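Quick one:
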Amino acid sequence: MSTFTVIITNSPYNSQNPYNALRFALGAIAEEHNVRIFLIGDGVYVAQKNQKSQFYQIEKMVRECMEFGCEIKACGVCCDERGVTQDIIIDGIEIASITDLVVWVDESDNVLNF
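Output:
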């Protein structure tokens, strides 16, 4: 079993990258791998709750990942710059520091950037 750190850098509806990152995460979880997701740059918008989308359903996918034990963190500086606060993000997502990402990358078998 491998540990994957998935880094999401794009906003959820600006490109398909966040959707594909979450598809990968759910697929890896299904194969019994450990997955951690770090949201950075515009990727912090993936953390927002009450998203309304008819196709991608990013919030639902995020919640599914967490239900299966996936830890998700969002870059604190990136959140601050974009006005993303703890009260508007999905419960269970932690606002963290770049040091947390460094630790995850160091501990991971594979790192994927979306």
